[in-house]
Amino acid sequence: MQYLSIFLKLVEMGLFNLKMNNKAKVETYKWYEVEPSPFQLLAQEDQDRLTNNFTQLLNSVNEAVIYVKNVFDFYEYENSQYPVIITKFYFGARENTPGFFNMRDITDPLKDRPTVTYEYPDKIVLSDGSLAKVLVTYNYPDYLPDGFLFEYYGIADEIFVKFKQVDQYKAIKMVSAARLRAESLLTGNRVTPETERKVQKLRDLSTTIGGSARLFEVYLYIVIKGKTNGELLEKEKRIKEMANARLLSIEDPKYIQRELYEFKTSVSAFTSFSIEKNFIDSISAGAFYPFISEDLIDENGVFLGKSNSNSPVVFNPYSRNNYNIVILGESGSGKSMTTKVFLRRLRKKMNIGINGIDPENEYVKDVVAKELNITQVVIKPGQKLGLDLMKFVREGFIDATDAAELIADLYYVPQELRPRLRRLFVSSDADTIFQLIDELKENKAEDLLKYLDAVESPPDSYVYDGIPIDISGNIVFGIKELRNQRLKVVVSSLLTLLLQKKMLSGRQLLFVDEAWIFSEYPAVLNLLQEVARRGRKYGDIFMYITQRPWDVYNTPEGRTILEQAATAILLRQRAAATEVLQKAYNLSQAEIDYLLSANPGQGIIRAGNHKLTLQILVTQEELEKFSTSPAI
Ligand SMILES: Nc1ncnc2c1ncn2[C@@H]1O[C@H](COP(=O)(O)OP(=O)(O)OP(=O)(O)O)[C@@H](O)[C@H]1O
Ligand SMILES: [Mg+2]
C-alpha cells in the first residue's frame, strides 16, 4: 500500500491533477517499430549499453508506451506450414523520432487489435472469438534483473508497459514528503523491518532523483488470450508463478478488464480498484529493457526450421561478420541433411555457386545432384586428376612454404626434415611435382625421398598427373571410391586449391563434409582456413561439416576453424564433445545435456550474438530425396 498512500497524499497536496471524470480517454501516440536483438546472451557491458540507451530513451520523452505483441502464425515453406511465434516490438510516444534503437515510423499498431464483444467481470470476449484477460503487475521489488520482461514473451499474447515521467520538481517534493512521513514512523515504538526498508528505499530514491535520474510511474499490463477458459487459466497460472518468483505482485482486476484491454487510462479506473501506482526511478527502469529477441530471423534469409520458442529460424550467412559455417554432430545427427536442405534453399534465395567435397558420395547421387543442380564428379581410383601441387605454386594459389608444409603433412615427413624440405621447395625451379622429386634425387636427398618417392608411383602419381578437371559450374566431387583415407585427404586438399581459383571470382560456396578426415593434417586444416579467409572479401561461404569435433579442436588450426566461424550448427553430440562445446561455444551444462540426447535435425545454432535451440524442419519431398537411412 505504500505507493498508493504516497499518491493519495500527493492528491491531497494538490500536486496531482486528478481528472475525476469517469469517461475513459484513449491515448494517442506516435508509433515506432523497434528491431529487437539478443540480450541474455550478451556480455555484461553490452547489456549495460542497451539498458543505458533505454534509460536515456525514457528520459527523453514525457510519456512512453511499449507494446510487445506475439503473433502466432504459420510459416509457409514449399506448401508445408509450420506454427511459429513472431514477437513484434513497438514504441509509442508523444514526441517525434526518439532516435534510439533504429526505430522505424509506423502507423498505430493498436488499431488492428480485435475488439471487445462481451465483458465478464474477470475476462472479455474478443471479436476474433478468443477469450482474453489482462493481468496487471504492481508493487515492484527493490531488485529486478535486467531484461526480465523477456520471461513473459513465450506465453503472453501482448504486453504493455507504460512509463509516465513525473515532473522533476514534483518528483523531488513528492519523494521528500513521503520520506519525511515515513521517517517520522521510525521514532514510534513499533518500528517494523518493513518500515525500515521503506524508509531506506525512499532515501535512496531521494538521492537518485536529486541527481540526474527521473521518476516514472510505471504500469505493466499482460494480456493473455485463449480459445477456452482452461487455456486462459493455464496461462494465467504460469504468468502469476513467474511474477511471484520475481516478487512482483500481479492481479487480474475485476470489472475493468475491458478498459484495461482497450488501453484507456483513466486514473479513476485504477484508484477506485486499488491498483497501486508504481514509481520507479529511471535507473531502475533500465531493468524493463524490452526489445529482446533471442530469435534468429535474418532479412532475406533461408528458412531452417524453428526455435524452442516456436519462432521461425531464418538464416542469412551474409548477416554475420564472416561467412564461415561449421556443422557439428555425431553420425546420424542430421549434418548432411541440414547441409543439403540449406544448399537447396540458399540456391533458391540467392545467386551463388556451389562447390563441395563429398567423401561419402552422398551429394553426387543422381537425385541429390539433380535437386541441388550440381554437376557430380565421381572420382575413380586410377583416374588422372591433374592436381599438381607445384603448378598451383607457380600459379600463385599457394606459396612455396605452405605447399612444403602441406606435402610434408600428407607424406608424414618428420619435423626435423621439414626445414630442409621448405628450403628446397622455395629454391626449386620445378614446374611440376615430378620435377621436384627429380631435383630431390639430383640432390641425393635420400632422407626426404624415403617419404616423398610415393608421389611418383600409383595411386598418388594419378593425382598429380594429367590435366585438371573442368570446374566451371556448380560442382561436387565424390571421393568415396578412393578407399585409402590418406589419398582422400591428398585429393581433397588439392581439389580445394583448384577450387580456390574459382572462389576468387566471387559468390561461391565451398562445403567439405566428413571433414574429420583432415584432423590429423594441420597443414590441410590451415589450407581450408586460408581458403575461407581469402574468399571472405569475395563473398564466399565456407562450410565445414564434421563429426568428432574434439579431434579437430585438438590442433590450433582446427580450433581456429571451429571457434572463428560466425555460425555454428551443433547437432546431437557424443559426451567426448563436451569440452569443445564448452570452450568453443560457451554452452552451459543444460545446453550440452540437450545436445547429448537430441533427435536428428535438433540442435543449437550459434550465429553472431544469437544462440538458440533449433529444429531443422524438412519437407516431405526433401526427406525423401535427401535421406540416407533406407527406412524412408
Ligand atoms: N531435420 C531432420 N528431420 C527429420 N529427419 C532427419 C533430419 N535430419 C536428418 N534426419 C534423418 O536422419 C538421417 C541421418 O541424417 P544425416 O545423414 O544427415 O546424418 P549425418 O549427421 O550426416 O550422419 P553421418 O555423420 O553418418 O554422415 C537422415 O537420413 C534422415 O532420415
Ligand atoms: Mg553425413
Automatic annotation (TrEMBL):
Q: Which residues cross the membrane?
A: none
Q: Which InterPro entries match?
A: HerA_central, P-loop_NTPase, T4SS_component
Q: Which domain of life is it from?
A: Archaea
Where the record annotates domain Helicase HerA central, the positions are 310-489
| Name recorded for this polypeptide | Helicase HerA central domain-containing protein
The species is: Saccharolobus islandicus (strain L.S.2.15 / Lassen #1)
